[in-house]
Amino acid sequence: MKRLDRYLLSQFMVLFGFFALVLVSVYWMNRAVLLFDRLIGDGQTASVVLEFTALTLPNVIKAVLPVAAFAAVLTTINRLNQDSEFVVMKALGVSPWRLAVPAVAMGLIVMVMLSALTHVLVPAAKARLADREAEVARDLSAQLLVEGTFQHPAEGLTVYVRSISDLGVLKDIYISDRRSDRTRTTYTAEKALIVRTETGPKLVMFNGMAQVLRQSDSALSVTRFANFTYDLGTILAGRERSARDVEELSTARLIAPDDAVFAATGATPEALRTLVHERFAEPLLAPAAVLLGFSILMLGSFSRFGLWREIGIAVVALIVLNLIQNAVTGQVNKDAQLWPLYYGVPLLGIAAGVVMLGLAALPRRRRRSAQEVPA
Questions:
Q1: What stretches pass through the bilayer (predicted)?
Q2: Neighbour tally for 80: CB within 10 Å
Q3: I need a labelling partner for 135 at 20 to 30 A (CA). Which of 44, 55, 62, 109 fits?
Q4: Could you tell me the residue range of the domain that residue 323 belongs to?
């Protein structure tokens, strides 16, 4: 029996790895394309795009692991059934309860993986991603040093640079500042430099002109300058992270929050407690999905065409389970006191799987399977 368990578990894990790799690749590539368009359009480098896509990977893996485990179970059982291996096992007296042990073991392995992702890796990746997004938002060089393109680094502000030299000199620069209700200012200069100072970045323009249009009477004043310093720090106003999302904190910090956690997130103790329960309940969906799919296929009988009817039922059952999970999440978001419902969804899936395994193990089903063994 131990050899049988190892054989089935190895079959499950091989297909689990295959489906996980395929699903993660597809899902991650879709996210990477969206990030690539947005970041490259903002003037970021390929290394920044690669870093951002890598930081989204833990969350992608967390989303696809239960589906990969579910697909691995369905594919393995269907193949073994088509090859008559499962039918022979049943005919030899191996009960569905015994056959379910390797499937449950795989579900527990996936649950451990999900726990590591949910409690540690995903929050750390989200925190790092949020910090990097804030850094990119403050990176004026990436937003201003784009040749031949009108940039809008802040609302009411337009910047255009015709060309940039190898030394970083901005040539033929145009700035339109419409952030004031009283005046509209336009700056033009032959060249400019971005200079880092203790009080923030400054734009030093040479051989240019400032045109100030007063909105009240449409009076225009023109000032020519040999050099002029424009404070870029005003563009950065409001770009600092004012609060940290609770999703960026590890479960250990949420379980025992201190004053710094409440100050950084602005969350209530009830919100933190609800998130902790959600994180502990989410990995339980993996063994629930695996057991649910396995038990439904155990109700099927031998067919050389496969257990496609049972597979369809199992897929519908998993969809229903996820719909219930989404509905529960919505209710708990409205009333934090309903957090026990988080655990009810995976327990419902496990209970349904246990009931169907019991039906598959009935003596009449065993006799039926034995009669269906091909001669």
A1: 7-29, 60-78, 99-122, 280-299, 311-329, 341-362
A2: 19
A3: 62
A4: 2-138+246-371
